[in-house]
Amino acid sequence: MPVNYCSRCVYPSVAATPLTFDERRVCSGCRASEPKASINWSERFQWLRDIADEYRSNGNYDILIPVSGGKDSYYQTHVAVHELGLKPLLMTYHGNNYLPEGEYNLNRMREVFDCDHVIVRPSISTLVKMNRIGFKLQGDMNWHGHCGIFTTPIQVAVRYKVPLMMWGEHGFLDLGGMYSLNDLVEFTAKFRLEHALRGYDWDDFTDEGLEKLGRGELKEGLREKDLLWAQYPSDDEIDAVGVRGIYLGNFVNWDANPQTKLVMEKYDWKPAEKPFERTYRQMSNLDDMHENGMHDYLKFIKLGYGRGSDHACKDIRAGHMTREQGVEMVRKYDHVKSSDLKRWLSYVGMAEAEFDAVSDTFRDPRVWWIQDGQWWKNNIWGSSSSFGPVHLVDAAQAKYKEGRAQ
Questions:
Q1: Which of 74, 117, 283, 356 could staple 391 via S-S, CB 3.0–4.6 A?
Q2: What is the pLDDT of residues 209-255, one digit of tens each?
């Protein structure tokens, strides 16, 4: 069955965030964004005030906010401090690949908001090993980042007994319409494991865990004591504190464009100085120099689209871009093999030929096919295109690919 594209935005029917299409070929992400125009956002914000008042503390932090130092982090903290009058504890997972502008923004948060700030920075050797394992195991060198972002804040909330946490937008709701804005969905351990971490957990990256998965060849010597930061608290620990994670996007009309303008003007927040090669936005993902680059290129390799599509969909739905303009963003950015690959290859000690060969084993057969020694896919602009030669390093990988395509 060929890949289809949403008639309103630019998302394909095979996506990292699960989508459904209706009879008008409009995706569930677009449909989920429609209620924004009719929601009474003043009433919603009063609901947020009521929640904040319920958790306001006389002797402890009022709220914990997971932050990366990005535009969303600044906006979340702005709302908490200046609109709700809360005393937050800021909490960051640091994956070691920040852009200089991202590091600058992160380090200024405790100063501009007068907040205490906990930063968890796993050892570099552990992160390098997890980059290699994640890439070879599931085609995602940044799995450790997803794990850290959705684990360390809950650990800190338990440790400091701060029951209320506030995330920004719910990504799977915002992009793919996993939920309705009327569901007022909250953070769950189930979402963390099954969606954010795609069914893997920290113990799968230890030598013992990799043996159990039948991937002992990927062992890097990681032990339980190397991954203490990645271990989710027990139900009893969470229940003892009453940890609850809400999403600010349920209570404000979330739009990154005016929010970014606000934090730039009010707090001198800095976007990326140098344009990215795989997207037109310079305000997103400054906490990992590979997030908009090779990490996202792997999504293109697997599913045939990238960050240019993601950002265009957001801006089309918010009325900042037409679909035709979005298609041009897809055409310009989604296929680019960005130059940050050289930095990552040096970081983990890998040759580009190995990177290409491993990457190709993750191509989704619903999207890609081989013709005359090239990978081909259907495009949103109504044609098929070739995207480079097939890379197979040995017969074992060829057999794996054939089995996966059946």
A1: 356
A2: 999 999 999 999 999 999 999 999 999 999 999 999 999 999 999 99
pTM for this predicted structure: 0.94
**Is the CB of residue 306 less than 8 Å from the CB of residue 296?**
yes
What confidence tens digit (pLDDT) does each residue in 104-115 have? Answer: 999 999 999 999
Selected from 3.90.1570, 3.30.70, 3.40.630, 3.40.50, the CATH number assigned to the domain covering 41-250 reads 3.40.50
